[in-house]
Amino acid sequence: MKVSFSKISAGSTWTRQELADLWNYATFHAIARGVVTPAGDNKIILFVSEEKPDDFTQYEDRLHGKTLAWEGETGHGSDARIAGAAKCGDEIHVFHRRQHRDLFTYLGIARVVKFEHCTSTPSRAVFELTD
Asked: How many CB atoms lie within 10 A of CB 108?
């Protein structure tokens, strides 16, 4: 099943459960990570929370206007796909919130401006929102 953004507009707010329902996932747990890559689809979905609870990994993610500075996951599982998104035709969609309990705001599609592969720490990327 492909994930559709036809009912999602830039600036709209969502919970993970609402998105899971929209995309026909059984529960929100299917999209409970920071990086979601739906099977068989060309989409990479980033769920970015700037201020995280103390017991969460404290990734340094900051939105400045239309630029997102972002740290990847410690396991590096999505690094190569994100770094090569433009070359492979993948779309990167960004949902953002300031605090952990806030609703996510859909910011639109982003492109990778810079990607720094790291091995002992999370990789770092800079994205520019294109919508």
From this structure: 18
For the chain, give every domain's residue range: 13-129
Please provide the CATH number assigned to the domain covering 13-129: 2.30.280.10
> What is the pLDDT averaged over residues 13-31?
96
In the block, residue with structure tokens 């099977």: 39
Q: Give me the helices (H) in 7-131, please.
A: 16-22, 79-83, 85-88
- The single-letter code of the amino acid at 29 is H
Task: Round to whole Å and give the CA distance between 70 and 127.
Answer: 8
Amino acid at 11: G
Instruction: Provide the 8-state DSSP code for 28.
Output: G
pTM of the model: 0.94
Phi, psi of 60 (to 5 degrees): -95, 100
DSSP 75: T
| Size (the chain), residues | 131
pLDDT of residue 61: 95
As a whole number of angstroms, the distance between CA 9 and CA 120 comes to: 37
pLDDT in tens, 68-115: 999 998 888 899 999 999 999 999 999 999 999 999 999 999 999 999
